[in-house]
Structure formats: structure tokens, C-alpha cells
Amino acid sequence: MQQDFYQDDYPTTEQDVKDAQAGEVFEKGDYRGQVIKIDGRVDDKRKEYPLYEHSYSHFQVKLFLDNGRTPAFFFDATPLKLKWESGQPIEEYVNWTKLVEAVNGQGKAANEVLDAVSGAMLVLSLGVRPGGVSKKSGKPYDEKNTIKKVQVFQQAE
Questions:
Q1: What is the reported pTM?
Q2: What is the DSSP letter of 45?
Q3: How far, CA to CA in Å, does 91 sit from each of 7, 14, 30, 84, 96?
Q4: What are the pLDDT digits (tens) for 34-89?
């Protein structure tokens, strides 16, 4: 799977870097974008999290906003059916199921789904989860975007 084939065509601007590092939270709504990078990672930091010591994919999507800006949006997904103690699936698995549905990847191997998503033009329906304090750990967490739906309107050739 070639994951960086758009790297030269879509350089990340200084503003994109500032936006991403500032943890920009986008308003609730639909956003057009293109998957420009997928990295494989292993969670080795969050011992209390069900994804700890498991692999996942980290996606970078270049968004195309109506005002001409093209900030980066990042999210994670995993095909591993991991759940919280409550039985609720973790966000990364839910994101994965939305990608699978978007590319009609039900029953396909994870690498086939990643190949179908890589370079694809998407519409991401984003929600906003407010910040707060974890009931379990007592640690604060920031407001962040959540993915409500993913649609593919053009797959990479």
C-alpha cells in the first residue's frame, strides 16, 4: 500500500501546522477533504486505555474549507473490536466501522479497506465533544471533534 503518493502535490503549509498543533476544533458540520497520509502506530502511552499496546491507523485528512483554507484534520481508527469496561466500543473502532461502511468494505481485510481509503476524497460529518474532567481518572480533557459519518465521493486511482 502506497500511503504517501500525494505528498508532493499537497504540501502542508505553515498555517496547517499551526492549526493542527493548536488542536483546532471545527464546528459541527460536513467537510470535504482528502486522505493524504495513513501511518501505522502502536499505543504505548495510555495504560488505562483499551487500545494500549495495540496497533491502529493514524489518518491525516486535508480539508477544503469554503474560505479557501486547507487545514489538516487527524483521526485514528482500528479494526480491533476493543471496548471499554462498560461494553461501549472505543472511538477508534467506531471510526473504523464508518470507514468500512464508506468504502463498502464489509467482509474485506483491513489492508483492503486502508487501500480503498488512501487518497480518497471524503465528506466527513463532524460533531463536537465538549471538554471536561474524566470521572475515572480525574484528568481534564479538551473539546474535540468526533466523526459522525464518512462518505467517499471519489476514490484515488
A1: 0.79
A2: S
A3: 27, 29, 19, 10, 9
A4: 999 999 888 888 777 788 888 889 999 999 999 999 999 999 999 999 898 889 99
Contact between 101 and 79 under an 8 Å Cβ cutoff? The reply is no
The residues with which 129 forms a beta bridge, in sequence order, are 144
- CA count, 13 A, side-chain hemisphere, 148: 12
- Round to the nearest angstrom and report the end-to-end CA distance of the chain: 13
Q: Is 115 exposed, middle or buried (0-12, 13-18, 19+ CB in 10 A)?
A: buried
pLDDT tens string 106-124: 999 999 999 999 989 999 9
Cell of 113: 479497506
| Phi, psi angles (nearest 5°) of residue 16 | -60, -45
